[in-house]
## 1
Amino acid sequence: MKAAHYPGLPGPTPVAARSAAGRGVAFRGAALLVLALLLAACGKEQVRPTAPTGASQRHWPQVRPTDPEAANAVLMRAIGLVGTPYTYGGNTPESGFDCSGLVAYVYRDMLDLRLPRTSRELAGIQGPRIAPEKLAAADLVFFGSKGNVSHVGIYVGEGRFVHAPSTGGTVRLDRLDGPYWRDHYSGAKRVLN
């Protein structure tokens, strides 16, 4: 039967097609459940996910940015660059990014805001130093050791940040409370006032 609002299309009406599709989804769901149970019975510990050891998940309060529109523009652009290759000294999507090149590019591209080029210079910009529980979207988060800043990212909220981590990698999202980042966190600065 043809549906009146789908002229020229042979086959079942959308309701009948949805009903048949629903039965197919239910069958596939049941088959996947059986397969999962079989795998769990065979593998025991090997197929069970385990919680990361030593990784404590903290509560990250949601703090409203001073300029939500500007912060949103920065976040959307930064997240849109996830997957771009890391390149030492890179500062465009075409050339790839290093950490400070990513930050400088995003702020320049979205807000025409010129920021310093290195993570150390970015850490030294004027602006309030932000406590971790006061982080707002688009704040800059810094990492290093022994008082030296060597890495920077853009905070996106809920304890996550976008950054260009290392040679051979790509721009990605990570968690501030991940083992490496938690141990090397050195502070944050608010660029948007």
## 2
Amino acid sequence: MALSASISLYFRNGFETLHLTELVTLFFLGGALAWPLIVLMAGLFARGAALETRFAACFVLLALGTIGVTALLFAMDYRVFYAEWHEPVLSKIGLKQLFGTTVSASYQFAVLGMRLYLPVGLPILGGASLWLAKAMR
């Protein structure tokens, strides 16, 4: 996913962004942390099924899992940034602020960050799904 984000950033603006390293790291960690969870979930849901079913399960789980973990990391980064102005997390107001920050960051990632998965991420997703589906048997 770091490769996908890098290529997308290059095509969009020639790497002219202030946070190139942070963005590539975010996408790398999102994919790397999601992978073991997705492999486990795919094994639970689709092991022993037909190849097409395993492929579909892997495709959906890889897509949603990678996006979800990366969005969560993005939201955690938001939380760290805004922590200076927020109440303690375990207070009533702090929980509301945490919820609001997480929802806002997830929305912003959905609107701006998911574009970095395309066009390179889609073929990678298909290839990884097929490879994982064949390896599951």
## 3
Amino acid sequence: MSTIELTKDNFDEVVSGNDFVLIDFWASWCGPCRQFGPVYEAASERHQDLVFAKVDTEAQQELAAAFEIQSIPTLMIVRENVAIFAQPGALPEAALEDLIGQARKLDMDEVHKSVAAQQAGQTGQAEQPGE
């Protein structure tokens, strides 16, 4: 599958419509972004069951701001509408493959439980131990 260009118009549809999305936040003037680009594209060819997407932070400044992108390239992985990884820096091929493998192995039921517990705690509705 080729890489999808994400914009503010298609972002929600692509991310919510797919269970596993890798997102590369980049810009054409960024040297490390240009180095990471071919590594990312090659991974997209090897993992055709996953969605690989790119956000041009210059053209999509609202998206970059919404995700508080401070440095590029930044790689984000979203599984089942939960951002499970976000880190700046160009990854070498082996590190990207390892990261994809780890993300595939995550127990998403546990992740969703953790997110629900965290959200309950933020609203003050979580049960305290001993209640």
## 4
Amino acid sequence: MIENNIKVRKANMSDLPAIYRFICELEDEVLDYKQFQQIFEENLHNPNWLYVLAEDETEGIGFISLHTHKLLHHNGLVAEIQEFYTSKKSRGKGVGRLLMNYVINSAQSQNVKSIEVTSNKKRAENIKVYESLGFKLTHNKFTL
């Protein structure tokens, strides 16, 4: 069920407090605000980054980010969803689908070779969400 009063739009600097809160909740960690602000502002001005906010009539309720870059092994442009969050009160209401559709449409308009998303193993429930949105589990990611 998608509620009619949800608006999805490109984020701007005034959205910083809400997005900071979302990412801290997503990571279950309090991040350094000044450093977060610096990164957020820098990426807002980078054409390879897209930050998108979902909001209801009163507040921000979701966020997604998309990063595009050219990769040799894809022989072209690839889009990666880096952060994806919907507030607890908004889950199951179609907010995530609206956010995902926004960035997928943006990526496809750039003729990307693929759209990728990675999820932390501690968020195992996200695999079902991504699969319901059309993603296929095809790779493993290793970090150091």
